[in-house]
Amino acid sequence: MSNDVTSVGGVDVSRETMEKLEQLCALITKWTRAINLIAPNSVPDLWDRHIVDSAQVFHWAPDNWTCWTDLGSGGGLPALVVTILDQQKRPMTLIESDKRKCLFLATARRELGLDINIINRRLLDADVAKADVLSARALAPLSDLLGYADKFLQPEGTAIFPKGARYQEELDHAAQSWHFDVKEHTSQTNPDSRVLILSRIIRRES
């Protein structure tokens, strides 16, 4: 491997990409002082807890995706990290209801030169084309996320949801209302957490 390439969350990145990720860290740190994009006590561990954690979402995504939607984008994690890592520059839509966080996302878009679509709407009110990859990080319980997948994800699409130590409890609860296929990947940032890859999501008949 060239000295100009390093790995972040299982993804090989160039020096230029690494610099953009570092710029993103600086922006998140600056804005968190004002609007708490991330928990203030996690700022010292921002790289591992947020950047690497987001990069592994991109790492586990299917290679052939064409459009991606991120729900409750907030501080742009994982959406901005995915956009920076994606060398094919495929369409990325971020849905966020908080106007201040949307202002941050727009600032990051401008300063980092990113081609992203920012939707300032509540999820229930957002109307966007269905994506073939859907992500959400620290947004809602899995059963609720699968409801959003029903609205925002193509039938053949893939949902990628990082989950904490209680992931199995969430899977069991979601299975009461939904049929789905799931693959579990141990998180690179916390061995008790998982990145859940879900497909063939269908609501159970009542």
Can you describe what's shown?
The chain has 206 residues and is of the alpha/beta class. The protein has one domain: Vaccinia Virus protein VP39 (Rossmann fold, 3-Layer(aba) Sandwich), CATH 3.40.50. It is built from 6 helices and 9 strands; from the N terminus they run ββααβαβαββαβαββ. The strands form 2 sheets. The protein has a 7-stranded mixed sheet with strand order 5-4-3-6-7-9-8, sandwiched between helices. A two-stranded antiparallel ribbon has the order 1-2. Helix 1 (15-35) packs antiparallel against helix 3 (79-85), helix 1 (15-35) packs antiparallel against helix 4 (99-112) and helix 5 (142-152) packs across helix 6. The radius of gyration is 16 Å and the shape is globular.
Summarize the helices and strands and which ones pair or pack.
Layout: E1 5-8, E2 11-14, H1 15-35, H2 46-59, E3 68-71, H3 79-85, E4 92-95, H4 99-112, E5 117-119, E6 131-136, H5 142-152, E7 153-163, H6 167-174, E8 178-186, E9 194-203
Helix pairs in contact: 1-3, 1-4, 2-3, 5-6
User: What's the main sheet like?
Assistant: 7 strands, mixed
**What fold name stands as the CATH topology?**
Rossmann fold
- What is the first-to-last residue Cα distance? 54 Å
Q: What's the number of extended β-strand segments?
A: 9
Number of structural domains: 1
Question: Which range best describes the helical content: under 10%, 10-25%, 25-40%, 40-55%, 55-70% or over 70%?
Answer: 25-40%
Rg of Cα set: 16 Å
Shape: globular
CATH architecture grouping: 3-Layer(aba) Sandwich
Note poorly predicted spans. none
